[in-house]
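Thread: quick sanity check before group meeting

JM: Hey all, I'm pulling together slides for Thursday and realized we never actually wrote out the predicted structure for the chain we discussed last week. Dropping the sequence here so it's in one place. If anyone has concerns about the input, flag it before I start.
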Amino acid sequence: MTGGRSTRSVRRIRAGRVAVIDVGSHTARLAVYEVEARGGFRVVFRAKEVPRLGRQIAEDGSLSPGAIDRGLHALDRFARDLQELGRPPVRAVATSAVRDAPNRGRFLREVRRRTGLTLRVLTGEQEAYYGYLGVAAAWPVDRDLIADLGGGSLQLARTRDGRLAATCSLPLGAQRLSDRFLEHDPALPKERRRLVAEVDAWLNSARRLRGARRLIAVGGTGRALARAVIQLRNYPLPQAHGFELRRRDLKRLAELLHPLAAERRRALPGIGRARAEVLPAGLETFRRLLDWTGLDRILVSGHGIREGLLVEFAGLPVPASADTLLDRSLGSIGMTFGPFVPRQFRVRAIAERLFDRVARRQGWGDEERMALATAAVLHDVGRVVDDWRSERHASYLLRHLPHLGLSHRSIGLAALAVLAREEEDLPRGVRREWRPLLDGTSLKTAGLLGSLVRVAASLTDLGVRAGPVGGGRRLELHAPRRFGRAARERLEEKAVRPLAARFGLRTEVDAG
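JM (edit): ok, ran it. Output follows.
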């Protein structure tokens, strides 16, 4: 167990492409990222293989000939993919199964000979560190416990004031536990009890890491559990990243999954064939983690080791504030749909000024502010699909785009804010669809945020500036010097009346 490690300060972000390969005990993944100068990044290519290096290992932990052959096949495919992609710089790492194998040297040499790739074997501490970096590139972190559950090991990383405070690595990987304890398919209750006792014993050896206010799950098992619950709950956001797994969700999953054989588990939506075999062990490990921490839910992160390696390579400063993460997120979206024009950021600036005027009376906080900023910049993104019903296209894209630093509630508010129309808050059917995430008050909030975005867009198009934020219900609007009758009528319709009707704001227009 170690503590006190933090990231190196880097002044200049290294823009361009970089490939990251993560060879775990169960899966091997390749991701190619593109990084922009301000820190936004996006995935331009990804590939996955399931070599199961940690499967059927010898008593001394050696990789079996079959596992070595499967691993070489996976990495040979990745090498071909990288050649077709122009041979970007590569950061390739291996974790628990290779780390624990006495014959890892043979495997690494064969990988180098056949593929030209150099695999760096991470220690448990390094694995936890890169998991922390990946999470810190997606969320503001403070007093969190990051649990990176892989096939061969469980890495725990405790944060304090945004920095990495302590780590440990435990032999509790989902593949390892499945092979050791779950002999039958489906597993017998006594087999699960022995597995749970093993998990509890190891967790008790890491008591120094307890006391976190939030538990964050990293790795494919956490994402698979989130996807399964999303399907079961008919949840409106199809994103595992940012989903909160509740204690009762895991209990319901356990009741559903444990009686099923692996073949039937594979047929369940969201789980996938590769994950079905080891999911019961991973599920029980996360349930014990909740009991051990005394928390009620787990925040699922789509960012982990691969993003952590990207952070180090590109020199992205972490930890980062929610505003910085939002800017990076918008930058990555701009890389996909084209750079944002200055108008979109002017709309955001005016919308945020209006928000500051009304937020206190509405009882709004950071989640609503982040949703407003996102909706203000992206309210026109639907036009990349078609001008016709562009607000519906924008709402759909907002639900599926990658977002950094935003809760699912904020994403939902933003998606509905761009959908809200002037004559009614939201179209019919929306309330029922979003009920698993947003209550009635949140749906009303989404409509109000949409009003602020529309007003801000109209003020921007008319060249009108909002005055400085002050107290009371009076708002100053500064119109350009040449401001004709038609512009005044449009200002009255699009800004003055909506602000008075929905927020009780009286406006005074200063033209020139």
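AS: nice. Confidence is low (pLDDT under 50) at residues 1-10. The first strand starts at residue 2 and ends at 3.
JM: adding both to the slides.
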